[in-house]
Design brief:
The protein is α/β, with parallel strands linked by helices. The protein contains 7 helices and 9 strands; from the N terminus they run αααβαβαββαβββαββ. The protein is globular and about 45 Å long.
């Protein structure tokens, strides 16, 4: 996964990680968004025995409460930024959660098969907001291959009113300004639905899940062969 924005190529120093700089680096709202993601997953059926894939896990903003909840060894996180994964390990140590044996991988091509298992759930929070269509398809295809046949994949995106919406959009709350062809991106649901379809997934718009920056949620599942 080639970074669209140089932001993702910046590597935090050990000193910055120790000072907690990673919490701001991933967009702030550390406790709010972490708790929101976890509660959404729990209400969507996530149980301790399930295996979960956290795509773009970063410094484990969402990962910490999920790791606390899941049975040992059932959390799998992937991120492009090695320093954020190191920051996640720091957070695990601070919370005394290393014994839960989470699996963390630095990877830039969504190669989830490296884990060698299938997943009950996957989530990608604020990942597609930074990716162009080709990379979203790569993520979709790789996630479909990694999901169990009855598995569920949740992902967020910034919603545009119709396909090919080339004007910028200012989303409220939060005031984030998104673009048609530069990071941060927006997409219509029809565009996301089409990308899912060509990747072998079915998409359903959940829409509002109380995200503080108005990112919308979609639910994706493996498309049954006709």
């Amino acid at each position: 996964m080639k970074a669209i924005n140089d932001f993702y190529e910046r590597q935090l120093t050990p000193e910055e990680i120790a000072a907690g700089e990673h919490r701001t680096f991933v967009g702030g709202l550390w406790h709010e968004i972490g708790a929101l993601q976890f509660e959404f997953l729990r209400q969507s059926g996530l149980l301790p025995h399930h295996r979960l894939l956290d795509i773009g896990c970063g410094a484990l903003r969402c990962g910490i409460p999920i790791i606390e909840y899941l049975d040992s060894g059932n959390y799998y996180g992937v991120d492009i930024n090695a320093s954020l994964v190191e920051a996640g390990k720091h957070e695990l140590e601070q919370k005394g959660l290393t014994s839960k044996q989470p699996h963390l991988l630095v990877n830039d091509k969504f190669e989830f098969d490296r884990f060698g298992i299938s997943f009950d759930f996957a989530i990608a929070q604020s990942v597609f907001t930074h990716l162009d269509m080709n990379l979203i398809v790569r993520c979709f295809v790789q996630t479909r291959k990694a999901l169990k046949s009855d598995g569920t994949f949740f992902s967020t995106f910034f919603l545009a009113p119709f396909p090919g919406h080339i004007a910028t959009i200012k989303h409220q709350p939060g005031g984030t300004v998104t673009n048609f062809d530069t990071d941060p991106f927006h997409y219509s649901f029809r565009e996301i639905e089409w990308l899912a379809e060509i990747s072998g997934l079915s998409a359903r718009l959940i829409d509002d899940w109380n995200h503080p920056r108005n990112q919308k949620m979609i639910e994706l599942s493996v498309k049954l062969k006709e």
